[in-house]
Specification:
Length: about 170
């Protein structure tokens, strides 16, 4: 349901978005996915709907296929992933998804690291949190820790996702 934006430009701010959540972990299951559970709670608390949720292992093909499936679904207007954005050899989320991006959202990762620095200091540079757009659907890649996933969703994604979707879907 569209609502008008209080800024003077032609885009509408959308409400009640359908958001998909993908957890990337080789050590957890959906039953013990505290990061994913926290994201679902935040998304629903903000008035959006979690229309799809899955967990895949740290495998680039699995990650790529899961996000491609989400993006191809009409109900999915944004995707949030949790996990695989660090520097260990098994952290392959960025490598799996960046080639699919039609456009990157560089400010997302930049702001995530900048704001994380306030909490964790220079260790913030270890995060490769990133965002991009695939076929008009914004995709946000967050760390797998509950704290990192919650911070990115609560502080950066939820305040902007409706506005971002209004741009990526070509509303004007």
């Amino acid at each position: 349901m569209p609502a008008t934006d209080d800024h003077d430009h032609p885009h509408e701010v959308l409400t009640d978005l359908g958001i998909a959540v993908l957890t990337i972990s080789s050590s957890r299951s959906l039953a013990e996915d505290s990061s994913g559970d926290a994201l679902v709670s935040l998304i629903e608390g903000a008035g959006h709907e979690v229309v799809a949720r899955d967990l895949v292992t740290d495998d680039a093909t699995e990650i790529s296929e899961a996000v491609a499936e989400f993006v191809s679904t009409d109900e999915v207007e944004a995707v949030i992933t949790s996990g695989g954005t660090g520097l260990s050899p098994t952290d392959v989320t960025v490598e799996a998804l960046r080639p699919q991006f039609d456009r990157e959202i560089p400010g997302f990762g930049e702001l995530f690291r900048s704001r994380s620095y306030d909490d964790i200091g220079p260790r913030a540079i270890l995060s490769r949190a990133t965002g991009g757009v695939i076929d008009g659907v914004p995709v946000f890649c967050l760390p797998g820790s509950e704290a990192g996933a919650t911070f990115g969703t609560e502080e950066l994604i939820l305040p902007t996702v409706a506005h971002i979707v209004s741009h990526t879907q070509g509303e004007s």
